[in-house]
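For the sake of transparency, this paper describes our internal protein records without simplification. The remainder of this section carries one protein's record, kept here as part of the documentation:
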Amino acid sequence: MSTKPDHEAISGSDPFAIFEAWFAEARASEPNDPNAMALATATPGAAPSVRMVLLKGHGPDGFVFFTNFESRKGGELAANPQVALLFHWKSLRRQVRIEGTIKEVTSAEADAYFASRHPESRLGSAASDQSRPMPSREVYLERVEALRAQFPDGAIPRPPHWSGYRVTPHAIEFWQDREYRLHERRRFTRQSGADWTSALLYP
Protein backbone atom coordinates (compact mmCIF):
# COMPACT_ATOMS: atom_id res chain seq x y z
CA MET A 1 0.00 0.00 0.00
CA SER A 2 1.34 3.42 -0.92
CA THR A 3 2.06 5.87 1.93
CA LYS A 4 2.18 8.88 -0.39
CA PRO A 5 -0.10 11.70 0.88
CA ASP A 6 -2.96 12.38 -1.51
CA HIS A 7 -2.56 16.15 -1.36
CA GLU A 8 -0.42 18.98 -0.07
CA ALA A 9 -1.96 20.33 3.13
CA ILE A 10 0.10 23.52 3.35
CA SER A 11 -0.41 25.59 0.24
CA GLY A 12 -0.66 29.30 -0.48
CA SER A 13 1.67 32.28 -0.33
CA ASP A 14 0.16 34.16 2.65
CA PRO A 15 1.08 32.63 6.03
CA PHE A 16 -1.50 34.75 7.85
CA ALA A 17 -4.27 33.36 5.64
CA ILE A 18 -3.07 29.81 6.30
CA PHE A 19 -2.97 30.51 10.04
CA GLU A 20 -6.47 31.97 9.97
CA ALA A 21 -7.83 28.86 8.22
CA TRP A 22 -6.04 26.49 10.59
CA PHE A 23 -7.07 28.51 13.65
CA ALA A 24 -10.71 28.41 12.55
CA GLU A 25 -10.51 24.63 12.30
CA ALA A 26 -8.84 24.44 15.72
CA ARG A 27 -11.63 26.51 17.30
CA ALA A 28 -14.11 23.96 15.93
CA SER A 29 -12.18 20.84 16.96
CA GLU A 30 -10.03 21.50 20.03
CA PRO A 31 -11.81 20.62 23.31
CA ASN A 32 -10.05 23.31 25.35
CA ASP A 33 -8.31 26.62 24.64
CA PRO A 34 -7.54 26.47 20.91
CA ASN A 35 -5.85 29.85 21.42
CA ALA A 36 -3.32 28.43 23.90
CA MET A 37 0.27 28.88 22.77
CA ALA A 38 3.68 28.28 24.27
CA LEU A 39 5.68 31.48 24.64
CA ALA A 40 9.46 31.11 24.76
CA THR A 41 11.62 33.96 26.04
CA ALA A 42 15.28 34.31 26.97
CA THR A 43 17.41 36.48 29.20
CA PRO A 44 20.20 38.63 27.74
CA GLY A 45 22.50 35.76 28.73
CA ALA A 46 20.43 33.37 26.55
CA ALA A 47 18.87 31.38 29.42
CA PRO A 48 15.51 30.22 28.00
CA SER A 49 12.12 29.81 29.65
CA VAL A 50 8.73 28.82 28.30
CA ARG A 51 5.12 28.93 29.47
CA MET A 52 1.59 28.77 28.08
CA VAL A 53 -0.29 32.00 27.35
CA LEU A 54 -3.47 32.78 25.41
CA LEU A 55 -3.63 34.41 21.99
CA LYS A 56 -6.00 37.39 22.21
CA GLY A 57 -5.65 38.91 18.78
CA HIS A 58 -4.00 38.17 15.45
CA GLY A 59 -3.70 39.45 11.91
CA PRO A 60 -1.14 40.71 9.42
CA ASP A 61 0.25 43.05 12.08
CA GLY A 62 1.08 40.17 14.43
CA PHE A 63 -0.05 38.02 17.35
CA VAL A 64 -1.23 39.59 20.63
CA PHE A 65 -1.10 38.34 24.22
CA PHE A 66 -1.44 40.09 27.59
CA THR A 67 0.57 39.77 30.77
CA ASN A 68 1.92 41.37 33.93
CA PHE A 69 5.00 43.34 32.89
CA GLU A 70 6.49 42.79 36.36
CA SER A 71 6.38 38.99 36.00
CA ARG A 72 9.38 36.86 35.08
CA LYS A 73 8.40 36.81 31.43
CA GLY A 74 7.77 40.54 31.56
CA GLY A 75 11.29 41.12 32.80
CA GLU A 76 12.78 38.85 30.15
CA LEU A 77 10.74 40.52 27.41
CA ALA A 78 11.89 43.95 28.55
CA ALA A 79 15.51 42.80 28.35
CA ASN A 80 15.28 40.71 25.18
CA PRO A 81 12.46 41.37 22.69
CA GLN A 82 13.02 38.19 20.67
CA VAL A 83 10.41 35.48 21.23
CA ALA A 84 9.05 32.26 19.82
CA LEU A 85 5.46 30.96 19.88
CA LEU A 86 4.15 27.44 19.39
CA PHE A 87 0.59 26.31 18.76
CA HIS A 88 -0.07 22.56 19.05
CA TRP A 89 -3.52 21.43 17.97
CA LYS A 90 -3.60 17.75 18.84
CA SER A 91 -7.08 17.17 17.40
CA LEU A 92 -5.82 18.30 13.98
CA ARG A 93 -2.31 16.84 14.34
CA ARG A 94 -0.86 20.25 13.51
CA GLN A 95 1.68 22.69 14.86
CA VAL A 96 2.52 26.31 14.04
CA ARG A 97 5.86 27.82 15.08
CA ILE A 98 6.32 31.59 15.06
CA GLU A 99 9.52 33.58 15.62
CA GLY A 100 9.64 37.35 15.93
CA THR A 101 10.01 40.40 18.12
CA ILE A 102 7.59 42.04 20.52
CA LYS A 103 6.16 45.54 20.80
CA GLU A 104 3.85 46.82 23.52
CA VAL A 105 0.21 47.30 22.51
CA THR A 106 -1.38 50.72 22.96
CA SER A 107 -2.94 51.74 26.27
CA ALA A 108 -6.32 51.83 24.55
CA GLU A 109 -5.93 48.21 23.41
CA ALA A 110 -4.87 47.11 26.88
CA ASP A 111 -7.72 49.01 28.56
CA ALA A 112 -10.29 47.53 26.17
CA TYR A 113 -9.13 43.96 26.69
CA PHE A 114 -8.82 44.30 30.48
CA ALA A 115 -12.35 45.72 30.65
CA SER A 116 -13.65 42.78 28.61
CA ARG A 117 -12.40 40.21 31.14
CA HIS A 118 -14.62 38.66 33.80
CA PRO A 119 -14.52 40.74 37.00
CA GLU A 120 -13.05 37.78 38.91
CA SER A 121 -10.19 37.57 36.42
CA ARG A 122 -9.58 41.31 36.76
CA LEU A 123 -9.51 40.95 40.55
CA GLY A 124 -7.02 38.10 40.34
CA SER A 125 -4.71 40.03 38.01
CA ALA A 126 -4.82 43.23 40.05
CA ALA A 127 -4.10 41.38 43.31
CA SER A 128 -1.18 39.35 41.98
CA ASP A 129 2.53 40.15 42.15
CA GLN A 130 3.01 37.59 39.40
CA SER A 131 6.07 35.33 39.62
CA ARG A 132 7.19 36.77 42.97
CA PRO A 133 7.40 34.67 46.16
CA MET A 134 4.08 34.41 48.02
CA PRO A 135 3.99 33.74 51.79
CA SER A 136 0.74 31.77 51.53
CA ARG A 137 -2.28 31.38 49.28
CA GLU A 138 -4.39 32.97 52.02
CA VAL A 139 -2.44 36.23 51.66
CA TYR A 140 -3.27 36.33 47.95
CA LEU A 141 -6.94 35.55 48.52
CA GLU A 142 -7.15 38.23 51.19
CA ARG A 143 -5.79 40.75 48.68
CA VAL A 144 -8.47 39.64 46.21
CA GLU A 145 -11.19 40.16 48.81
CA ALA A 146 -9.81 43.57 49.78
CA LEU A 147 -10.02 44.68 46.15
CA ARG A 148 -13.52 43.22 45.86
CA ALA A 149 -14.58 45.38 48.81
CA GLN A 150 -12.89 48.41 47.25
CA PHE A 151 -14.62 47.88 43.89
CA PRO A 152 -18.01 46.26 44.68
CA ASP A 153 -19.32 47.16 41.24
CA GLY A 154 -16.56 45.09 39.61
CA ALA A 155 -15.05 48.12 37.82
CA ILE A 156 -11.46 47.26 38.70
CA PRO A 157 -9.07 49.56 36.81
CA ARG A 158 -6.25 48.08 34.77
CA PRO A 159 -3.02 48.06 36.78
CA PRO A 160 -0.35 50.21 35.07
CA HIS A 161 2.01 47.22 34.89
CA TRP A 162 -0.57 44.99 33.18
CA SER A 163 -0.69 45.28 29.41
CA GLY A 164 -0.01 43.35 26.23
CA TYR A 165 2.51 42.62 23.53
CA ARG A 166 2.19 42.15 19.81
CA VAL A 167 4.61 39.66 18.24
CA THR A 168 5.71 40.77 14.78
CA PRO A 169 6.88 37.58 13.07
CA HIS A 170 9.82 37.14 10.75
CA ALA A 171 9.30 33.38 10.46
CA ILE A 172 6.17 31.19 10.55
CA GLU A 173 6.39 27.42 10.12
CA PHE A 174 3.44 25.10 9.55
CA TRP A 175 3.68 21.40 10.42
CA GLN A 176 1.15 18.74 9.42
CA ASP A 177 1.39 15.26 10.87
CA ARG A 178 1.46 12.39 8.37
CA GLU A 179 1.48 8.63 8.76
CA TYR A 180 4.82 6.92 9.28
CA ARG A 181 6.37 10.28 10.16
CA LEU A 182 6.22 11.49 6.55
CA HIS A 183 5.25 14.87 7.95
CA GLU A 184 4.74 18.02 5.92
CA ARG A 185 6.55 21.24 6.85
CA ARG A 186 6.56 24.65 5.19
CA ARG A 187 8.52 27.59 6.58
CA PHE A 188 7.75 31.19 5.64
CA THR A 189 10.38 33.88 6.22
CA ARG A 190 10.75 37.55 5.45
CA GLN A 191 13.25 40.33 5.89
CA SER A 192 12.14 43.73 7.21
CA GLY A 193 9.75 45.31 4.71
CA ALA A 194 10.06 42.42 2.26
CA ASP A 195 7.45 39.96 1.02
CA TRP A 196 7.15 36.48 2.48
CA THR A 197 9.06 33.64 0.88
CA SER A 198 8.56 29.97 1.71
CA ALA A 199 10.23 26.61 1.38
CA LEU A 200 9.33 23.04 2.19
CA LEU A 201 11.46 21.40 4.88
CA TYR A 202 12.34 17.77 5.35
CA PRO A 203 10.41 16.38 8.34
Residues 15-29 form the longest helix (15 residues). The first strand starts at residue 36 and ends at 42. Residues 15-106+156-201 form a domain with the Pnp Oxidase; Chain A fold (CATH 2.30.110.10).
